[in-house]
Give the backbone structure.
Amino acid sequence: MGGNPIPDDKARRYDFARLERATDALLRRHSTLLRETADVRRRLADRDQRVRTLEAQLREANQKRQDAIKRIDDLIAQMDQLDAQLGGGS
């Protein structure tokens, strides 16, 4: 008919060599992807830590702002009270 159903030794060696090259290429690519994944995970962890640090700094800054607003409001209330006591409230 059209051909020999059993490949000869040369064809088998070629197929195995090709398979070995493909397998080696896949293993190299897999190793590369593992390194890249580890690097991305490390950078993500660093970024997450930076975000947590910045969020903590933001909370602290907001608390300081609220404290300053309260002190200013207290000072204004005291000034209004002094103004009223000194007769300037008319």
In short: Helices lie at 9-85. The CA atoms of residues 28 and 34 lie 10 Å apart. The chain is about 85% helix and 0% strand.
